[in-house]
Amino acid sequence: MGVGAAAGAAALGLPNVANAASWSSRNWMSSLPDSRSLTRMTIPGTHDTCSNNANNGTMWAKCHNWSIWDQLERGIRFVDIRLNGLQGTANEMGVYHGSWYQDIRYQDVLNACDNHLRNNPREVIIMRVKNENAGGQALGAAEFRRRFNFYLDHPSMNFRPRFWTNPSWPTLGQARGKIVLVADFANPWTVLQWSSGWNSFFRTQDIWDGNGQGIQFKRDKIIEWFDHAYFNQNAAEMYVNHTSYANGVWPSTNASNIFPTVRYYLDQRKTQRINFGIVPMDFPDYDTEVLRLLIDKNFI
């Protein structure tokens, strides 16, 4: 059960309600109140969102079976987009896993998000944008910012109106129809800034390589961070709890071994209103019950 979490529910004022409301995966945010802050939610996400083809880096780089289009339709609302320069272009960027191009351009990612938000205007997508800075298409800090601004402001792209670029976590009402930018690249901008640890915006568990420690080490860290969020429901920062793990084993193998632990933990708390923050996963299709339990948390 984790560090006495169930016993602490009453003390924390967390209600125990038997059933979550019904929702549709493509627009599950739509019926939630405008006043709810994103930091008071449980938001399923994906790690290395566009790494869904073993031909683009072997099974060591493949993290998903679902494309980004599939993920958004199935309820994923945090995407992890890692960019290098797009070969043969002066202004564009492509999505990479390390030095491996994932056969999708950044404008394709933005168009997928834009289409989903046009069709579901009460939804919100949180996007971590990382300078992957790897391989022959690596970009320096200034060039990365220049190319990112190309996507925001060039007339052929013009995605700036779609982005939330304020330096604070919005409510659902403020962010509906928006991509909330989380910058994971060197910049002087007043926007939400990513942390793989702890800063004024995030409290993150992102242990992706246990330095030889086995799968139980990662399972324990996931449960520890769920419990940490449980007992800090009023934190100003967004909790992030990665279930993804490498450590010398294919991501698909680790996902198969991690999901039963995550599912058991969430199932034991399925009647409790808890905001766990963002939960980025590999292969969410391996256990769609986990995805359902995460989204359900917002309706209890």
Task: Please characterize this protein's 3D structure.
- The protein has 300 residues and is of the alpha/beta class.
- The protein has one domain (6-299): Phosphatidylinositol (PI) phosphodiesterase (TIM Barrel), CATH 3.20.20.190.
- The chain is built from eight helices and eleven strands.
- The strands form three sheets. Strands 2, 3, 4, 5, 6, 7 and 8 form a seven-stranded mixed beta sheet that branches. A two-stranded parallel sheet has the order 1-11. It has a two-stranded parallel ribbon with strand order 9-10.
- It is globular and about 50 Å long.
- The protein starts with 8 loop residues before the first helix and ends with a helix.
